[in-house]
Design a protein that fits this description.
The chain has 18 helices and three strands. Helix content is about 65%, strand content about 5%. It is mainly alpha-helical. It is globular and about 65 Å long. The protein has one domain. It is a multi-pass membrane protein.
Length: about 450
């Protein structure tokens, strides 16, 4: 008789010719897909092979701790730097008679607290919950993104990518990033069944049915954002989508076709926008020619900030380039320049190390997790957070043209910090969903009790 497992050897398949005949050309892959029970597991706990169960649990436990610590430190440091960056403008506004000039800082603290709470809540859900609910998450995020084209939509610096809800502005595309990652992971994992741990075979990409849904999800999500002229966010969508398709096993020839289409699309988007064309022109002029005597650009002020900071920085709160009239958007897209001026090279290195900790912890979860959906989801989150952080740093240091993406966890903006913390919550949920990981945290003694026990033993 044929066994009912997810894998079969050759002898077992020959013993069941009638089943193979009924399934046609799908063969063993079709058997695995048919035998995947729908609606399970309810708890989301993913069972591990006995031989490496303890190792995987240790990896998940250590990755959760590293990810949580690095994320919290980046968020708190971001609040401090936002306060420093907005102080000059707040002082001038107060001198002119304005009140509540630090309202933006208070809101950022509130948003960070909301994001931490939401992340903690999401981490309690099993990862299977997100796979089952991907359509609802993605559809809701798409509807939210469509609001930017309604009377509630607001255009900022030529980008119509915000929604005004009373005194609060929201950027729906930040939440659409996470929803798109979950949707891509869910549609890719459904190709061969949720129980399969292996990634999609290269030859299976020859069937158009296996990739039409993921490509459609990307085009619809990125297309709505692109209609609002926010090309920086579109590039972030392209980054994590390409990475997730590679993780899923997409053949290299498809990447060549997609890369060529992406280059042509980017060139067209630059050509039809005078502001984008000017940014790219300034970038290449600064590379190949001496600086002109005209007005300095944002990139110029950012480089001056790094130069003023030196090794140890000028001191927290003492930066000059952040003052109004100098570096624009110091508290948002160019917050890394403020770090460079006030905390110096050492402060920038600390930020880079913290993002490396975030990336390493996410990659470790992605590599060692036994669930294919979790692998793809956490891999997409790693590509989003770390790829966007790298892009922001390259822009601020004039190694890329200015295209406006925030630094995750640190830049001012409620939508950005909440969505990034939500992504961390989903990644921690994936790690907790491995069998025995959550229980291992409960079994460990409380830190205070451990310290008291150690002290009492030394007496």
């Amino acid at each position: 008789m044929a066994k009912t497992g997810g894998t079969h050897d050759a002898a077992t398949r020959h013993d069941a010719p009638t089943r193979a005949t009924r399934r046609g050309s799908r063969g063993a892959t079709g058997q695995a897909r048919r035998r995947t029970p729908k609606g399970k597991p309810v708890t989301g706990a993913t069972r591990l092979p006995a031989e490496n169960a303890e190792k995987v649990r240790d990896v998940m436990r250590h990755s959760i701790i590293m990810l949580a610590v690095a994320t919290l430190v980046l968020t708190v440091l971001g609040l401090v730097m936002v306060f420093s960056a907005v102080t000059p403008g707040a002082m001038r506004s107060a001198a002119a008679g304005a009140t509540n000039t630090f309202r933006g800082v208070y809101l950022q603290i509130f948003y960070a607290c909301v994001g931490i709470v939401v992340a903690a809540i999401l981490s309690r859900f099993p990862i299977e919950f997100f796979r089952k609910s991907w359509a609802a998450f993605w559809a809701g995020a798409l509807l939210l993104q469509c609001l930017v084209f309604s009377p509630l939509g607001v255009a900022v610096a030529g980008n119509r990518n915000w929604v005004a809800l009373g005194p609060i502005r929201m950027q729906p595309s930040e939440f659409l990033k996470l929803a798109t990652i979950i949707a891509l992971a869910a549609t890719l994992v459904n190709v061969r069944g949720a129980a399969s741990v292996n990634l999609l075979r290269r030859e299976e990409w020859e069937d158009i049915k296996n990739w039409v849904w993921p490509i459609a999800i990307f085009l619809l999500s990125a297309g709505l954002v692109g209609l609002g002229h926010d090309m920086g966010t579109v590039l972030v969508f392209a980054l994590f989508t390409a990475g997730m398709l590679w993780l899923a096993g997409m053949a290299w020839q498809w990447f060549a076709v997609g890369g060529l289409a992406g280059i042509l699309g980017t060139a067209l988007a630059i050509a039809v926008s005078l502001s984008r064309l000017a940014r790219v022109q300034d970038f290449f002029e600064n590379i190949f020619t001496l600086p002109a005597g005209g007005s300095p650009t944002q990139a110029d002020y950012a480089l001056w900030a790094f130069g003023s900071g030196g090794l140890g920085g000028s001191g927290l709160g003492t930066g000059i380039e952040k003052w109004p009239g100098n570096l624009a958007e110091a508290q948002t897209d160019f917050i890394f320049a403020v770090v460079g001026e006030e905390l110096g090279f050492l402060g920038c290195a600390a930020v880079v190390i913290l993002f490396l900790m975030v990336g390493i912890s996410l990659v470790r979860i992605c590599i060692h997790h036994p669930s294919r959906f979790a692998k793809l989801t956490v891999g997409g989150i790693a590509l989003w957070l770390c790829g966007q952080a790298l892009a922001n740093m390259l822009v601020v240091t004039s190694m890329l043209p200015v295209f406006g993406v925030p630094l995750p966890f640190m830049s001012q903006g409620g939508s950005s910090v909440i969505s990034c913390l939500m992504a961390v919550g989903v990644a921690i949920s994936a790690a907790f969903s491995v069998e025995g990981v959550r229980a291992s945290f409960k079994q460990r003694p409380h830190l205070v009790k451990r310290v008291v026990s150690i002290v009492s033993k030394t007496r």
